[in-house]
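In practice, a research group might receive sequence data for several interacting partners and want a quick structural hypothesis before committing to experiments. The following worked case mirrors that situation: the sequences arrive first, and a predicted assembly follows.
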Amino acid sequence: MEPEVANQGNEISPNNTIYINNLNEKVKIDQLKQSLHAVFKQFGTILEILAFKTLKHKGQAWLVFKDVASATAAVEKMQGFPFYDKPMRIQYAKTKSDIIAKADGTFVPRERRKRHEEKGKKRKDQHDANQAGMGLNPAYAGGAKSVIPEAPAPPNNILFVQNVPHDTTPMALQMFFSQFPGFKEVRMVEAKPGIAFVEYGDEMQATVAMQSLQSLKIGQQQLLITYAKK
DNA sequence: AGCACA
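A structural hypothesis for the assembly, expressed as tokens:
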């Protein structure tokens, strides 16, 4: 007989939604969601990202892809990806997200959770504004080690490449980046392993290379490419 | 460690 029951053990079956834990709990929810989006959008359209700061849900997030194939790629390729100094742990979510159920017509409203919604709903707009500002502050958490840029640099002709395996040579990197028009040079800094700068003639050329190489893995590691700060 | 639907 074939195994009709897809899910006997601890394996969780494919789902549009990935469940991520071991996230750095010091990161503010808004910034966390933004950064997750930046890192996972390469796998396909993201419908929703949910994260909460309550005790039971800190350090975790649910990221809903439009397509299951995107979720599968994300689970495989981003497993252990260093994110705010901690390796992400990624699984498929155990259950279907509401947003998916609504789309496929299977949504049935669940019991309303306890009266969660009652406590002081003050004007906290000011706090939110402050929090947004903090997302731009590199001094946050006192470290420069995050693989996530605090604020995305505007498009320009130089790419900033992160999560490069430490034993990668400039020559090796050049192999990948020089196949795109306008390539000028790769620069690596001895004192700062794991990163590289790649320069192109102009912004469009840099953009083309970035989009093509964004999903490149070297060894086990998923490259992360953004524009360099100038 | 912790699987929700702010």
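Before designing any experiment, note the following. Confidence is low (pLDDT under 50) at residues 1-6, 114-146 of chain A. The helical segments of chain A are 29-40, 68-77, 98-104, 125-134, 170-177, 203-213.
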